Amino acid sequence: MTSASGDAASAALVSSARAEAVVDLDAISANVAALRAHVGGRDVMAVVKADGYGHGIVASARAARAGGASWLGVAFLDEALALRASGDKGPILSWLAVPGERYDVGVAAGVELSAYSVAQLREIGAAADRVGKRAAVQLKLDTGLGRGGAHRDDWAELVDAAARSQETGSVEVTGVWSHLARSDEPGHPSISAQTAALATGVAHAVESGLAPRHLHLANSGGTLGSPGTWFTMVRPGIAIYGVSPFADGTSPVPIRPAMTLHGRLALVKRVNPGQGVSYGHTYVTERETTLALVPIGYGDGIPRHGSNRGPVLLNGRQYLVAGRVSMDQFVVDIGEASAAAGDAVVVFGDSDRGEPTAHDWAQAADTIGYEIVTRVGSRVPRGYVGAVGP
Question: Sorting pLDDT into bands at 50, 70 and 90, what band is 4?
Fold first, then answer.
């Protein structure tokens, strides 16, 4: 079903830009609202790290807030500070740091910080003492992903240190959380194992005198497909932008793609049979045909692995990339179809409008939809449509 803002996104294809990523902010807002309803009104932390997965961090955050996101999640403190500078005053969690991080600036700005280790907790506490303001901290437990978070063998030490810091007034432990390893495989045994491990970690924290209010484990896959992981809050990322985390590209909750990546043809020309196309001539024309040149390439985020496989929409028909994707351009063989320089071509967008999707490109490039939208580079300007303006 096409929304009014979806129609606006389609209309934006008449832009004179070489390429543009049109972001439908109403889609982000509606996706957040749908996810919030799906989890029974639990808190939703909308993840807007990595420039809002390529959609624009500030605009995405405002759209997510409008859709009912009570929290925003970012990886790095600089991202949280950018949100504060934009005027966002709501709860924000920042979770990835290195020794020597500017925690004092984060504490002063009211950003909640995640701690993985006793050493990190001490740094946060010292920064809070310098600022003269208690730091809000959420402890992260590694329940099985094997990435960030305290190892279960180190959890008791971290919890005890947090309890001591809370007693001295340096920090307040507001939450405990973790991250799923295989949420894109609903029913996988690791999901219930990680859920149980987090519950055990929370119980230990409570027994040690802490009172964490915010408990979260579910990312997009958990939010959509594993209700047992929901705890008090869910933490969707890619789903709020309308891209499924699942291998088949489906979603049990109606979500709409927010980004449409389009460009305009730079050149259309007839060529003879046997014409090699692009580097390495991995595509050779079989007959006289028409080639259309799209001035977008891997320098803009188009995956080179999509060579000869990535789909585009041109004048109402889908075609595959012909030959290798270059840094600034790729070619499409349109056969006997009619086209002219300046015609709009959609690289990915909304299947409801007959467009290829980020999931289609992920399959073509043997990657995930997350990477397709996030890698759209800074050479591609962002345009915004929808009532929830930037």
Answer: very low
Instruction: State whether residue 166 is helix, strand or coil.
Output: helix
CA distance 344 to 331: 14
279 is catalytic: yes
Single-letter code of the amino acid located at 108 = A
CATH hierarchy code of domain 25-240: 3.20.20.10
CA distances from 370 to 246, 257, 357 (A): 11, 12, 12
Token reading at 139: 């402890």
Q: CB atoms < 10 A from the CB of 182, how many?
A: 17
Catalytic residue among 49, 116, 298, 370: 49
Instruction: Provide the b/e sequence for 216-237 (b: ≥16 CB within 10 Å).
Output: bbbbbbbbbbbeebbbebbbbb
Residue 370 annotated in active site: no
Q: Which of 103, 133, 279, 370 is catalytic?
A: 279
Q: Is the pLDDT of residue 15 over 90?
A: no
Report the topology of domain 259-385. Answer: Lyase, Ornithine Decarboxylase; Chain A, domain 1 (2.40.37)
Domain spans in the chain, listed from the N-terminal domain onward: 25-240, 259-385
H helix intervals, 266-388: 358-365, 369-374
